[in-house]
Design a protein that fits this description.
This protein has 714 residues and is of the alpha+beta class. β21 (389-392) and β22 form a beta hairpin.
Length: 714
């Protein structure tokens, strides 16, 4: 502490001893006193936030309470602290609705008086903050169906599952919004302005000039030819925008726009920017968060976006007075996503992103590179796209492309709204962990820090109780003596889709490369050699798949459709074709589908289909057949009656003799086909006869490929 401040505190403590007040009363109230006193010495006064003691007694306040109970607790605490405010000769002050805080301006004498009050817990300085700078990259003239930034967070697959944030809202606390832009028109569930006035140099930008202002148009002060609404409009569109062609992440969600920025004409305040400039402060942001907390239930707010920041920290900043309300929102399941800022720093991020209960967000490109100007730290929670992000322009109905952590943050806020629709009662910590566990790990070279880039649909899959879909120890093409690994993907859905395979080091688990299949039609099941995947995979940074000498890979598999997968091995030297599938959550229980039956032209590897009647009476089976390449139906066969408890075995050669469509397609080069059982109460089994060694192998076992909806998603 500065010597003069130390002397001041010494005199203050002496006064406390003379008046008989316990020193333990004053100690908590000095949490931020050093900064407050410096400001008073410089300016003669300081704007402060006074935290009241409100956690004891019959009307105790806590973050876990409902908003009505919090309002009652705050009102009781305010009644208790009024005498202390009068004793300190505090005139004007602002109380909050659900937070045990009072905002006021104090002199040195008033500060010392409040610090000695038994019903004051702490005093914090109101700090100035800015919008995160964004770089305009280029104006987009042609509309595009899906921003590449949005698609890179795996949200299109969540939309395909029916989750786009519908029924929920994202609160965007920023600096003005063009709510008439087609991407935002009709989205707003309310408008509010909490921008602050201070002295003669800082004036709020609420349309009436009076703050707070709540109601239609309160957040939409967008003067003609002024850039003040550029930032908020663009950020909001990335979170929830939807004009039917261009989409934000939570394209079905609504918007709560809140303006907290004022115009400041003071050169010192604006530096290094020219004056006048737009600034906000922790008081205005607290007002906005207080409003969100109070109205969260009625407006169904899922997430809050804060693309603002002040000074940087190299650790958590839980002394920030906003932590209390962020804790409160977290208790309600509401995520507060905050931008890390754009200083290009490693090991530091800005306040308030450094609050531990917030979700701090850094910027990446649309791939796996950390943006050079993004702050990057081990206390960051997530990365999301922030480079050349297209979104709504405040000027007219066009789009514009910008870069910055301001734009990565609404990807996370929007993602939370999508997850909240999928899991209305989901636990906050579980949802956060799912996003972290399924995210793509990103690192900045030389930092030793890894932060996950969000993947929304994968997180939904994880929350549905499914583990990562991994086949272990698939044989590399570098070890042909062990055999040749194949993977099969059966599309059991109604539309075509793709499969993505991530090649991982089988011992270390590190990513070596990724491969995405061509479109796979419904009822089709291509059999793909690992050598093909190795050859066509896009290597991860620093990896050379073409010249590797690994014996095994682990394969992590994701898909855009529901279906099944198998890992099979052809040990050519031994003459054995075997099913090596293993599933973390158990084999698929669909016993009516067989994928990749060998046609009779696969000499020495004859397929047998065994139909088992588990019913109480004799009955026949109906088998439908599909081309494994195209998914097209190519024939149907009805078996003789099978006695109760009995089974019937038929070979592919026998089936081809009886079904003209099978014969025709096999004659035209089809080597494998799929079959689906109906009518019979029971199941089918696929057995391959390895003729050269006289061995029979069960090929029936298969793993879930896509994730089926579960109770958790309803």
């Amino acid at each position: 502490m500065h010597p003069s401040l130390f002397r001041l505190f010494s005199r203050f403590l002496c006064c406390l001893a003379v008046t008989g007040l316990a020193l333990t009363v004053a100690a908590p109230a000095r949490a931020d006193a050093d900064e407050v006193l410096k400001t008073i010495q410089r300016d003669g006064h300081a704007r402060v936030l006074v935290r009241m003691k409100a956690e004891t007694g019959a009307t105790a306040w806590s973050p876990q309470q409902s908003a009505p109970r919090q309002r009652a607790a705050v009102a009781a605490a305010l009644d208790n602290v009024r005498p202390s405010l009068r004793n300190a000769r505090i005139g004007a002050f602002r109380a909050f609705r659900t937070l045990p805080l009072v905002a006021t301006t104090v002199t040195q004498e008033q500060l010392l008086s409040l610090m000695s009050a038994a019903d004051v817990e702490s005093i914090s300085l109101v700090r100035r903050e800015r919008k995160m700078d964004t770089a305009v990259v280029d104006r987009i003239l042609e509309k595009v169906q899906l921003s590449t930034s949005v698609s890179s967070v795996d949200v299109a697959n969540a939309w395909a599952k029916g989750f786009d944030g519908t029924g929920y809202a994202v609160a965007v606390i920023d600096g003005g919004f063009n709510l008439n832009h087609p991407m935002l028109k009709g989205k707003a569930v309310g408008d509010a302005c909490f921008a602050s006035d201070f002295g003669t140099t800082t004036k709020n930008n609420c349309p009436t000039g009076i703050s707070p202002q709540i109601g239609a148009g309160a957040a939409s002060n967008c003067p003609a030819n002024s850039p003040r609404c550029d930032h908020g409009t663009h950020v909001a569109s990335v979170a929830v925008g939807n004009d039917g062609v261009n989409y934000g992440v939570a394209r079905g969600a609504r918007l709560l726009p809140i303006d907290v920025f004022s115009t400041d004409t003071d050169l010192a305040d604006c530096s290094p920017d020219p004056a006048p400039c737009e600034l906000t402060d922790s008081l205005a942001v607290l007002d906005a968060l207080d409003y969100v907390n109070e109205h969260a239930a009625e407006l169904k707010i899922a997430a809050v976006n804060l693309s603002i920041g002040g000074g940087t920290r190299d650790g958590y900043c839980d002394d920030d007075p906003r932590k209390g309300v962020i804790d409160m929102l977290r208790q309600k399941g509401i995520a507060v996503a905050i931008a890390a800022s754009n200083g290009g720093l490693t090991g530091k991020i800005s306040a308030p992103a450094c609050i531990s209960s917030a979700l701090g967000v850094g910027a990446s490109d649309d791939g796996t590179a950390v943006w050079s100007l993004s702050n990057f730290s081990s206390i960051l929670d997530f990365m999301a796209p922030g480079v050349s992000v297209s979104g709504a322009s405040a000027a007219g109905a066009g789009l514009i492309s910008k870069s910055g952590t301001s734009l990565s943050t609404p990807h996370v806020a929007g993602a939370w709204a999508v997850l909240r629709q999928a899991f209305p009662t989901g636990q906050f910590d579980q949802m956060e962990q799912a996003l972290k566990q399924t995210g793509i790990p990103l690192t900045r070279q030389g930092s030793g820090i890894t932060v996950p880039k969000i993947q929304v649909a994968s997180a939904i899959d994880r929350l549905n109780g499914k583990d990562r879909r991994i086949f272990n120890n698939a044989v590399s093409s570098s070890a042909p003596g062990l055999g040749q690994s194949f993977v099969r993907f059966f599309n059991n859905g109604a539309t075509s889709g793709t499969v993505t395979v991530t090649l991982r080091d089988s011992a270390a688990g590190t990513t070596l490369g990724t491969w995405t299949s061509p479109p796979i039609a419904p009822q089709a099941s291509p059999q793909i050699s690992l050598q093909t995947i190795e050859t066509q995979a896009v290597p991860a940074a620093g990896q050379l798949l073409a010249t590797n000498s690994r014996t095994y890979y682990n394969l992590e598999i994701t898909s855009t459709f529901t279906g099944y997968m198998q890992h099979v091995l052809w040990a050519r030297t031994g003459g054995v074709f075997a099913n090596l599938s293993s599933c973390a959550s158990g084999f698929a229980n669909d016993a009516s589908i067989i994928a990749n039956v060998h046609a009779s032209t696969n000499l020495n590897y004859t397929s047998h289909i065994r139909m088992v009647n588990t019913g109480a009476v004799a009955d026949h089976a109906v088998l439908k057949f599909y081309d494994s390449r195209s998914g097209g139906e190519i024939g149907q066969w009805t078996s003789p009656d099978i006695a109760a408890g009995a089974s019937l075995d038929v070979t592919s050669a026998q089936l081809e003799q009886q079904i003209a469509g099978l014969r025709l397609n096999v004659g035209n080069g089809m080597q494998q086909y799929n079959t689906r059982l109906s009518n019979l109460t029971g199941y089918v089994q696929h057995v391959i006869e390895n003729s050269t060694v006289g061995a029979l192998v069960d090929m029936s076992s298969k793993c879930e490929l896509g994730i089926k909806p579960s109770v958790a998603a309803n």
